[in-house]
Design goal:
Organism: Saccharothrix hoggarensis
InterPro entries: Anti-sigma_ant (IPR003658), STAS_dom (IPR002645), STAS_dom_sf (IPR036513)
Number of strands: 5
Number of helices: 3
Pfam family, one: STAS
Helix content: 25-40%
Protein name: Anti-sigma factor antagonist
Family: Belongs to the anti-sigma-factor antagonist family.
Length: 106
């Protein structure tokens, strides 16, 4: 499956919808989107993950990259991660650096 990362920035909040498989071949694409939104003054990054079907270690490094690139002043919220994706995040301990939440209305 292919990978898509579509971003929208409004009022200091960057939202990126992730779709498909985030792995070594697609991680660079997410890094570029993160670099684009990082040019704006942000206080929150929301990653919509309900359509993300797979997260490899390379994909996880992209999430860590976002955390480092945006700095401690930017809250990162992961919304709607599927159980297998959430498990990967929890196993590495990265869930302690971000906010993980279910989609609203669920």
């Amino acid at each position: 499956m292919s990978f898509e990362a579509k971003s929208h920035v409004w009022d200091g909040i960057a939202t990126i919808r992730l779709r498909g498989e985030l792995e070594s071949k697609s991680a660079g694409r997410l890094n570029r989107v993160i670099e684009e939104v990082a040019t704006q003054e942000l206080h929150r990054l929301v990653l919509l993950m309900d359509q993300l079907t797979y997260l490899s270690s390379a994909g996880l490094r992209s999430l860590v990259y976002a955390h480092q690139k945006l700095g401690r002043g930017v809250e990162i919220v992961l919304v709607g991660a599927r159980p297998e994706v959430a498990e990967t995040i929890r196993l590495t301990g990265f869930d302690r650096s971000v906010v993980m939440q279910e989609p609203t209305g669920a």
